[in-house]
Amino acid sequence: MKEITENKKADRACKSLSAALRILPKYCCFNEITVRILCTEACVNGSDFYLYFKDKYELLQYHLAETWESVAADSDDGASLEGELTRLLCSNEQILVNMLRNANTRTLACVREFLSSIVDGILNVTDAESPNQTLLCNFFVGGLLSYLAWAIEQDSPLYLRHLISYLFQMLKAIAVWDAGQAINTSVLHSTENAPPSTDNLKG
To answer: What is the CATH number of the domain that holds 102?
Structure first.
């Protein structure tokens, strides 16, 4: 019973800290958020924080993983995933901006890992098995991070909804192109393996 109680306590603490991490970046950069501030917001004892996380970056990884899992759980096809993903990123746009503003390498690594998880989820839900689709998604991760850094520096709108839409449209286009290539290859092979024409045997 004690172990169950301890697990419940840990679960509550982790979720409270995750919720605090979701709220605080609305008002300040991630670099300015300390463990003490997180614990105060989450009503968690400061010393207890280190029972669950090594530092705020490990909490960030946990938070992003939990966020993605909640989206993936509600998505059973490409269309629903696109909608859920758009809703998630657009509703957390300011958090994303504050998280990446003056970000250090560890913050960027956490966000890149989060985006990579999204890519894996997209490929899984849409049954995208083509190397071209995988290459596109991995390129999208690096490109999105670079774009976000530029947009934040220029204080420009992020247009996240459009970026997600373009990604899914490109995945569909590549799927159609790959299907066409497969048909062409199949026709080519069947032509090469066909028996010689009887016209060539006359005379």
So the answer is: 1.10.357.10
Tokens of 73: 């759980």
Q: What is the pLDDT of residues 183-193, one digit of tens each?
A: 555 544 555 55
pTM of the model: 0.69
* Axis-axis angle for helices 78-91, 160-192 (nearest 10): 150
**Residue 85 falls inside a structural domain:** yes
Q: Is residue 11, in this structure, part of any structural domain at all?
A: yes
Number of domains within the chain: 1
Whether residue 196 is contained in a domain is answered as no
How many C-alpha atoms does 55 have within 13 Å on its Cβ side?
7
Measured CA distances, 34 to 25, 28, 29, 55, 76 (Å) = 11, 11, 11, 9, 37
Question: Which tokens go with 107?
Answer: 């913050």
What is the rounded CA–CA span in Å between residue 186 and residue 192? 10
Residue 198 domain-assigned (yes or no): no
Contacts of the segment 174-178: beta carbons below 8 A, 24+ positions apart: 174/130, 174/132, 174/133, 174/136, 175/128, 175/130, 175/133, 177/132, 178/130, 178/132, 178/133
Q: Which band of pLDDT confidence, cut at 50, 70 and 90, is reported for residue 76?
A: low
**DSSP 8-state class, residue 102:** T
